[in-house]
Amino acid sequence: MYKYLKKPTFFLISIFFFSICVQSQSIEPASKAKRPSFMYKPDLVRRSAKYEQKLGILPVIDSRISMFYGEEDDFYRDPIITGLNRIFNLELRYSGLFSEITSIKKGSSESPDIKEIQSIGKLNGANLVLITHLTEFNFSRTPVDIYAKGLGARIEADFANSLKVSFISQLIDIDTGLILFAEEINRESIEYARSRSFKSDLLEKMTKDVLKQSFSDLKILIQENGLRIKS
Amino acid sequence: MILNINKTFIIFASIFYIQNSFAQYNMPPVEDDKFFDALNQELEFFEADWIDNHSITRDIILGASWMNQDDQENYLGQIIFSDKKLNKKLNNKGNVKNEIAVLLVVITNNSKYRIIFDGSSTSIINAEKNKIQKSEFEDVIKKFNFKAGRFGKAISEISTLGIASSKGYDEMRIGSIRSNLLKKSIKKIIVEPGKSSSSLLFIPASSINTNSVISIPIQNLKRLIYLDLQLNLPTEIS
Description:
The complex is a heterodimer.
Chain A: H1 7-21, E1 51-57, E2 61-62, H2 80-95, E3 98-103, H3 114-123, E4 128-149, E5 154-173, E6 179-194, H4 200-225
Parallel strand pairs in A: 1-3, 1-4, 2-4
Antiparallel strand pairs in A: 4-5, 5-6
Chain B: H1 5-26, H2 34-39, E1 54-57, E2 60-66, H3 69-76, H4 83-90, E3 100-109, E4 115-118, E5 123-125, E6 131-133, H5 137-141, H6 150-159, H7 167-184, E7 188-191, E8 196-204, E9 213-220, E10 226-232
Antiparallel strand pairs in B: 1-2, 2-3, 3-8, 4-7, 4-9, 5-6, 5-9, 9-10
Helix pairs in contact in B: 1-6
């Protein structure tokens, strides 16, 4: 049959059918082995600690209004909260802001009172407790352009992919019950992409970027705004 | 017959171009899409006491008003709960199973303390003192008709024997809706002294009752002290 077709026409037909068969894909988590990890090693800072007391870091409390994207949350190798707990621990340990740090495994209630915090602190030998509410860890896509492809047979869109991370951290003094530091950290990473070209490595890059910026903000704000109890 | 393949292809390609022109007529460019337009509409600035329906607790003011049809079209791109249905419900009439109503909620912190406004834990307390949680984010998403119009979709699918797709177009619209809702929905935030913040609260329409109240927890940021702000549901559409 091929000998009856003119070469340019055959070429056009091939491109045409290929392009209409390639449909845009929705965003779904990759298979578990291919999911990205957002673990990274923070820079170690050597300085005299701002707080000489021992800090206990409570597990992050998930206060988001939505899952990561749609009804799915499992886009990473580890669950988001598990990964964030590890990063919080690493970042603050490497920050040099606290002389001693312990990771508290058992979480508090969503809105703990001072008695609950004091009890957790004493149980873990901590003088200070860090409680964090995660308010956003969401992916969203905003369209920037729509056009026809596949010789006009397929409607496609270009997107600004956005990963937004927000959390509220509070540093509480166990003895006095005073909140020494409380700030909301908001950061966003944006990458432009076509709908079907969303890749795991792009998500990994966006996540690490946004987390590094967020923790940089957190550490600067603790250094600058964190109150100290005069002994 | 094989010799006619070249001609046949040209005819088919022409049909695809024509159908696509029809399809695109029903699928406007990004900047003309109502959901994209809504994404760029910032909520109007309010202080809570500018709203008739407000309450004051320790210098912290909470105000709420219903989002009428025009406001829903403006800020969401679509009416998800009509004024007619809302009016009926406010008069304790009408069946609103699985419907979601929208409120504009404004907090103004006139106290001297920084606070956490825990919008993500908002609930409605009805006359029987039962707590009804605000609507889930994904349930709100389901209220939007983001798929391409039937006309464009039908032409697109029929003329290509079902091969062509409006999926990219649908994906674009759902992208706008998600981004818009994430930006405007009520959430947990810090409100500094003297500042105000506006957001949208989505509640199950079945919880609307003249005796129902909105309950939103706040936390003092000097010590771990909590308080529930309460406000009656508005009784009329502004």
